[in-house]
């Protein structure tokens, strides 16, 4: 179990180490090292996903929030994509974000806001590899829903960036 403490409330995750062992290990390494401390949910698409885990939150800014000073974090090496594990990108599941390369996930993750069948594994090629689900939200769905409703815009080369900070203040492993 992991608790994500955000400025909108707490999201509690149950991770599935049986079906996604390498992905859970990777995520917990980031959690336990403090990597997610004061990072941003930098991509919010209502009815699709909320995404975080890759950009620092800069303290002390007011106008345009920290977006103007949003800086990418330096993640660990990419991991093998375990999307063929049978878990689906259903509403309130957590999955690893990645580039178009199937095995490129590092620190960024997203929480599905609906059943996103198009993100599921279908075949082991670039188009069908999918996004690895490694857990689900077991408490705090109202927090996820509140984050999904923030106003967003296109800023600094990124789309769907919240116009007011959505901060992951800390992530902690709990029993």
From TrEMBL:
Domain called PPIase cyclophilin-type: residue spans: 1-173
Family: Belongs to the cyclophilin-type PPIase family.
Annotated protein name in UniProt: Peptidyl-prolyl cis-trans isomerase
GO molecular function: peptidyl-prolyl cis-trans isomerase activity
Taxonomic path: Bacteria, Pseudomonadati, Pseudomonadota, Betaproteobacteria, Nitrosomonadales
Keywords: Isomerase, Rotamase
Gene: ppiB
Pfam families according to UniProt: Pro_isomerase
Purpose of the protein: PPIases accelerate the folding of proteins. It catalyzes the cis-trans isomerization of proline imidic peptide bonds in oligopeptides.
UniProt organism field: Candidatus Nitrotoga arctica
Superkingdom, taxonomy of origin: Bacteria
EC number annotated for this UniProt entry: 5.2.1.8
InterPro entries: Cyclophilin-like_dom_sf, Cyclophilin-type_PPIase, Cyclophilin-type_PPIase_CS, Cyclophilin-type_PPIase_dom, E_coli_cyclophilin_A-like
Catalysis performed (reactions): [protein]-peptidylproline (omega=180) = [protein]-peptidylproline (omega=0)
